[in-house]
Amino acid sequence: MCEEPDSPTCGTLVFKPLKLVGRNSRQRQISNNNFMLKLTESKMIVSVTGATGFVGKRLVQRLHADKHQIRVLTRSRSKAQSIFPVKEFPGIVIAEEPEWRNCIEGSTAVVNLAGTPISTRWSPEIKKDIKQSRIRVTSQVVELINNSQDDARPKVLISATAVGYYGTSETRVFDEQSPSGNDYLAEVCREWEEAAIKINDDVRLALIRIGVVLGKDGGALAKMIPIFMMFAGGPLGSGKQWFSWIHLDDLVDLMYEALSNPSYKGVINGTAPNPVRLGEMCEQLGSVLGRPSWLPVPEIALKAVLGEGAAVVLDGQKVVPTKAKELGFPFKYRYIKDALKAIMS
Ligand SMILES: NC(=O)c1ccc[n+]([C@@H]2O[C@H](COP(=O)([O-])OP(=O)(O)OC[C@H]3O[C@@H](n4cnc5c(N)ncnc54)[C@H](OP(=O)(O)O)[C@@H]3O)[C@@H](O)[C@H]2O)c1
User: Hey, which of 54, 78, 158 would you mutate to test ligand 1's pocket, going by the most ligand atoms within 8 Å of its Cβ?
Assistant: First the structure.
C-alpha cells in the first residue's frame, strides 16, 4: 500500500473543516472554504519515475517546496529514502514497483524519467538495457494509468525522451516536426515515445525531447569537466558538432509548467533557444573555469570515460525549441555562457 500521512487512502486529500469565530463567521466560513478549495485544486499529487536521478531530484525538490504531494516511484526504497530523507521531505511517499499501481491511481499527474544511464560505456548488454529499461517502465506507467478507475486516472503524463530522436548532423536544424534519424539512439527514442503514446486519449501527454542537461551535480557536464581540466580544455573531437543543451532549472521549469498548463501537449523539445557548436561550448567552459582553450581534448579521452556513450556529446544535432517558444516559455538561460556561469558560480 501507498503510505501517506493524513491520508486514509492513497491519493485522498483531507479537507479539514475550519474553526471560525466572530460576527461574520458564516461568510468567512464560505470564503475560507472557497480559498481552501482553490488551494486544494491547485495542489497536485505527482508520481515520478526516475525521481532519484539528476533531473528527477531537482523536479521533486521544486514540487515539494511548493507543497505538492510527491510519490517517488523507484526500484529501491532505501536509495530513494537516502535521497529524500523524511526530515527534509515530510509527506513524501516512496514506492517500489509492486506499489506503483496504488500511487499512480489517484495522482493528478505522472512524470516518467526512468531509464538506464546513457552516458556510460556501451556493451551489447548495456545497449539492450538502455532501450529496454525505458520501454519497460514507460509501458508499465502507461498501463497503470490506462487501467486506473476513470475518476482516479491521472490527467497528465509528462514523459522524457531525447534529442537523439533526430539522429546527428553538422548541417541540419531540427524542430519538433523533423523526422527521426537512423542511428541507435534515434531508434531508442522512437520506441520509447511509441510506448508513451499508447496512453488513453483522455490523458494529456507531453513528450519532452531533452537535450544535454547542464547542472552542477550530474549529467554530462560533471563528467566532462575533469577531462576538460586535464587537457586545459580545447574542443572535444572536431568541435564542429552541434551541442543542444538546456540548463537543469529551465528543464525542470518546463516540466513543471507542462504539469498544469493544458497547452503543453505533444512533443516539446527541451532545449535552450541557442544551441552551440561543441567548440564554442568548450571555449565558454574554458573561460568560465579560467582555463584558456588551447589544447583539443582528444576523443579518445572522452571515450575512455564515456565509452560509446560519448556519442551523446561527440556526435550532436542542432535542435531548436520551436514549440516552447510558441508557448511563450520563459527560458532563464538562453545563452550557454550564462548557463555555465550560473552553474560554476
Ligand atoms: N541528463 C541528460 O542530459 C538527459 C538528456 C536527454 C534525455 N535525458 C533523459 O531524461 C531522463 C532523466 O535523466 P537523468 O539525467 O535524470 O537520468 P539519471 O540521473 O540517469 O536517472 C534516471 C533514473 O532512472 C532510474 N533507472 C536507472 N536505471 C534503471 C533501469 N535499468 N530500469 C528502470 N529505472 C532505472 C533510476 O531511478 P531508481 O533507481 O529510483 O529507480 C535513476 O535515478 C532519462 O530517461 C534520460 O535518458 C536526460
Answer: 54
